[in-house]
Amino acid sequence: MSLALGIVTPALHMNPRFDPPEWEFTARVDDVVAVVRHAEELGYDWVSCSEHIAIPSAASTVRGGRYFDPFSTLGFFAALTSRVGLLTHMAVLPYHHPLELLKRLGTLDVLSGGRVIVGVGVGSLQPEFEVLGHAFDGRGDRADDAIRAIRAAWGTRVPEYHGSHYDFEGFIVEPSGLAREIEVWVGGRTRRSLRRALELGDAWMPFGFTLEGLTEFLTNEKVQADLAARGETSRGELKLILAPEPPIDPLGQPDTTAAFLAEYVALGATGFSLRFAHRSPEHYAEQMEALQSLVRSSGWSLG
């Protein structure tokens, strides 16, 4: 089978749960750029950048406090690369009007030659919603309508959409992305997020699961029924982009890593959003190379 591979770009966000190495706290921009360029050289499918705007201090011990802005960061990466995909992982939909995202991501898509992957989530940090002046309740329904609006408007100079929460026509949005079917990847850790991906997205990217927890979730009878129902729609097969936890060590523990990833593949993984155990940018690069060799030796091809 074919697997797509992308990275959770180091240093842009340090999640305390993964005990980030010291170099990430003091990383230079050049260090991160070197990782991104090496990912492209190796043929990785995407690099990513997540979104939070204002983390409450009390939550930083769990979520971390540093989050580079995904729109400017991925634009910077676009200028320094030529092929690798640019994934917002994840943009928080309720923080933006769909036309705002259309303009930001559409501009990036044009500048990068069609490399944007629109990764979206609904958000879960209520104090952040409140300080930004956005309603926390009802965010799921607003996010669903936002996805529909973005799909309807993508690549259209004068977009028109009439939905449950967003309504617009007669406004020029240029650029608004290349004229193509934009990929929308939905993040989350609930059945609702999976159903959102099944109905409106091209991929589901769950987060915060151990292998045991994800196995329990995906083998649930109701979830299995949801996944089976996708085959009755016109959207085609849903990609399942999984994020192994804890970070993997293909260089130091190749056999253990191969067995670990094989369990995710058995769950239906079509790709991986990867974190590596590493101690420096150079070690990170070595881990990316080792992972590719491991994937090929395990009989999987690269997507």
Strand percentage lies at 5-15%
Q: Give the proportion of residues in helices.
A: 40-55%
Q: What is the residue-averaged pLDDT?
A: 95
Number of helices: 12
> Main β-sheet, in a few words?
8 strands, parallel, barrel
Q: How are the strands of the largest sheet arranged?
A: 1-2-3-5-8-9-10-11
Q: What's the assembly state of these chains?
A: single chain
Radius of gyration: 19 Å
Write the element-wise H/E pattern from the N-terminal end onward.
EHHEHHEEHEHHEEEHEHHEHEHE
Number of strands: 12
In whole angstroms, how far apart are the ends? Answer: 9 Å
What's the gist of this structure?
This protein is of the alpha/beta class. It has 12 helices and 12 strands.
Provide keyphrases for this structure.
alpha/beta; two-stranded antiparallel sheet; 12 helices; single chain; 303 residues
Account of the 3D structure:
The protein is of the alpha/beta class. 42% of the residues lie in helices and 15% in strands. It contains twelve helices and twelve strands. The protein has helices spanning 22-25, 29-42, 60-63, 70-80, 98-112, 126-132, 139-153, 191-200, 211-218, 221-229, 254-266, 281-297, and strands at 2-7, 46-49, 85-88, 91-92, 116-121, 161-162, 167-168, 184-188, 203-206, 239-242, 271-274, 301-302. It has an eight-stranded parallel β-barrel with strand order 1-2-3-5-8-9-10-11, surrounded by four helices. The chain has a two-stranded antiparallel ribbon with strand order 6-7. α2 runs parallel beside α12 (281-297) and α5 packs across α7. The longest helix has 17 residues, at 281-297. It is globular. 37% of the residues are buried. The mean pLDDT is 95.
